[in-house]
Structures are given as structure tokens and as C-alpha cells.
Amino acid sequence: MLLKINISRLYKVLTLIGLILLTGCSDQKEAQKSEAVQQTSLAFQTDDSLCKFSQGACAQQLNNLQIELTIFPETAPSEKPLQVNFTFSQPVENLKVRVEGRDMFMGIIPLNLTQTDKNHYQSTLIYGSCSSNYMVWRMFVSFTLDGKSQTALFDFLADNEN
């Protein structure tokens, strides 16, 4: 009987401590979230390897081929349909595109492309959200040009408010 009373008291004390900790966390969590958003914004602004769709198309030069990628909306929100557009400076063949998390495995998302003219392709993309405040996605663009297989990589930040 003495053991049951001590366990009961211990449970009450632990519950009380838990409640005290929880009530003190809400302001701290908001401050941490605000700080994380500021750090994400700063990291995005200083990372020149990431596409910044709000500033225009993300372009890459591969040998004699210019590839431009645009995504709308430019903020690349998670769990919402994104319009993806590719423009090539010359016609390519066997175009295949997939999206994966750059720093975290989030699955492989293939894009079903539609060719709108000889150098333009489009698709719709939806990807999941991440609990991290900084989720970078990598788009793998594989194609054949002049009989040679090539791949271009485009990295971009999800949920980018900049």
C-alpha cells in the first residue's frame, strides 16, 4: 500500500512539472520559430546555388545548350500545385525530369511533361511539406542532345517567401 501511495504522489508531481514546462514553452516556441524563419531567409539570400524564381527564370548553360526553369507560384509552396516550365535553346530528345530532396530523402517525384513547342515543356508538380524550416528540392533534368545523354540539376527552396 505504501508503494502505491508513493507512485501516486510521484505521478502527481511529474504531471505538475509537465504542466509548468508546457505553459512556459509557448512563448519560447514562437521565438524559436521566428528565429528559424529569419535564419532560413538569410540562408536563402546568401546561397547562390539555389534558384530564385521571384527574380526570374533559373538558367544553366550546359555546353552549347541554355536551359531555363521557371516555377509558379515563385514561392514554391509545399502541398500545392506548381506550374513547372522548361525552355531549351535548342531541341532535346528523351527529356525526363524528377524531383528529390537535396539534403533529406522525401521520395522520388517524376514529372509528366507536355511538350508545348519544339523547345518548351511544362508540367505540374506537387511535393509534400517538411517539418524542417529549410527544405531544398533538387530537380534532375535528363535528356539527349546530339546523341549524348546529359543531366542538369536545379536546386530550389520550398515555401520560399523571399
Task: Give your account of this protein's structure.
This protein is α+β, with helices and mostly antiparallel strands. Helix content is 28%, strand content 40%. The strands form 2 sheets. It has a 5-stranded mixed β-sheet with strand order 1-10-9-5-6, with no helix packed on it. Strands 2-3-4-8-7 form a 5-stranded antiparallel β-sheet, with no helix packed on it. Strand 7 and strand 8 form a beta hairpin. The longest helix has 45 residues.
**Binned strand content:** 35-45%
Residue share in helix? 25-40%
- Distance N to C terminus: 63 Å
Stretches with pLDDT under 50, minimum 5 residues: 21-26, 36-45
Instruction: Look at the structure and give the mean pLDDT.
Output: 81
SS element count, helices = 1
Order of strands in the sheet with the most strands? 1-10-9-5-6
Envelope shape:
elongated
Q: How many beta-strand segments?
A: 10
Structural class of the helix and strand makeup? alpha+beta
Question: How large is the radius of gyration?
Answer: 24 Å
Order of helices and strands: HEEEEEEEEEE
Q: Major sheet: size, sense and barrel closure? A: 5 strands, mixed
Produce a short descriptive summary:
This protein is α+β, with helices and mostly antiparallel strands and 162 residues long. The protein has one helix at 2-46; strands at residues 50-51, 58-62, 65-72, 82-88, 93-101, 108-110, 114-117, 120-125, 136-145, 148-157.
